[in-house]
Design goal:
about 0% strand, about 75% helix, about 240 residues
């Protein structure tokens, strides 16, 4: 393997994410420009935050004149899932330096996590290939948001369904994760819980509550299925 192979293989694995990031990042850039952010603000947010859902939420809260502390707290809560994603990938990165782990963790997103975890489980996936996936998608996101920020001055607010871009992305991610009945039941439980909790709890905290309930239910269902399978095997 020459030194360019990990980059080429990372590009090969990451290009579907990049294709998705281009319209999504463009949509964010347009919305951010409409919220009053300039190109430098958009670029810095994409580089320093680099979390699509949190960036969309932050822009929406900025548009509604929310308090800075509430924006920071909300985006922090939404990004807590990165602790779970990073811990799942950490088992494949034993012995790496803190510098490498910091650079790798910076590029972890829902999409790169899904790609890298699947490749690590299949075997033969090198840490530098995984790092290439993270950083290639990172550059794509930053570039597309800047492009959207520039084009925002020429796009009318609310046009082309741009406000729906983030919801569409998460629906696609959900569809690809439905690999069996347990996953489907977990998704249904999470969705129903989110709707029910949102009716009685104000703000965006219902997302976190529903996520915890859904994850707990999924874990319980998986344990039940495993015990039932072991019982049947024992008989």
């Amino acid at each position: 393997m020459n030194r360019f192979d990990p980059i080429l293989q990372g590009i090969k694995a990451a290009w579907p994410i990049c294709v998705g990031f281009l319209p999504l990042g463009f949509a964010f850039g347009v919305l951010a420009q409409k919220a009053g952010l300039d190109l430098l603000d958009i670029a810095l947010m994409s580089m320093l935050v680099y979390a699509g859902s949190s960036q969309f939420i932050a822009v929406a809260m900025l548009s509604s004149a929310a308090a800075p502390l509430s924006i920071i707290f909300t985006t922090f809560i939404v990004n807590l899932r990165h602790f779970l994603m990073s811990s799942s990938l950490a088992v494949y990165l034993h012995g790496e330096s803190r510098g490498f782990l910091s650079l790798f963790a910076y590029g972890v997103t829902d999409e790169s996590f899904a790609i890298n975890l699947a490749r690590f489980r299949e075997g033969g996936w090198h840490r530098y290939q995984a790092l290439a996936v993270n950083q290639i998608t990172n550059f794509t996101w930053i570039g597309s948001t800047i492009l959207g920020g520039y084009a925002g001055q020429f796009v009318l607010a609310g046009s082309y369904g741009i406000d729906y871009a983030l919801s569409a992305m998460f629906l696609c991610l959900l569809t690809f994760q439905l690999r069996g009945r347990i996953y489907l039941l977990t998704a249904i439980i999470s969705g129903v819980a989110a709707i029910a909790i949102s009716l009685v709890v104000s703000g965006n905290s219902f997302v976190i509550m529903a996520s915890i309930l859904g994850a707990t239910a999924g874990f319980a269902l998986k344990r039940y299925a495993r015990r039932r399978r072991d019982t049947c095997a024992g008989n």
